[in-house]
Amino acid sequence: MEKENTNKKSLITLGTSSLLLLLGFVYFFNLNFKTIQVQGESMEPTFLNGNRLLASNAYWLVGKIHAGDVVVIGGEEPGEYYIKRVYKLGGEKVDWLNIPQDYSLAEGDYTVPQGMVYVLGDNRDVSEDSRRFGPVESERILGKIVLKRWL
Prior knowledge:
Blueprint: H1 2-32, E1 33-37, E2 52-56, H2 59-62, E3 70-74, E4 81-89, E5 93-94, E6 110-111, E7 116-120, H3 130-133, E8 136-137, E9 141-150
């Protein structure tokens, strides 16, 4: 009888520990990862309308943002976001083909201000990006894409 009671206590302790570990993982995942659904054609052919992606803001885990990374940027309205590729970081020069529309070449080279990123869509013909709205504050980046075809 004593041994049976000890086995039940061990099983309850193991079950409780497993549940707490699972809840801890779910909490960690919720804080550091977000699922995003692609809307529109601006990132074709890399991402198609309707694709689901996984983004992370745990840069200590997935690495800092670099040129070439695809990021999710918070929009002006709640729930609004943009998926774009980082083209240049603060302090870097943008080539004249990709400068903001309202910038005059007479002003000289366009340099991305510190603390900002310059983003472009992969489908440049239809993308509204930094050429149209200028560089984006780094704080508006919600995360970078870490899993490209998550379903």
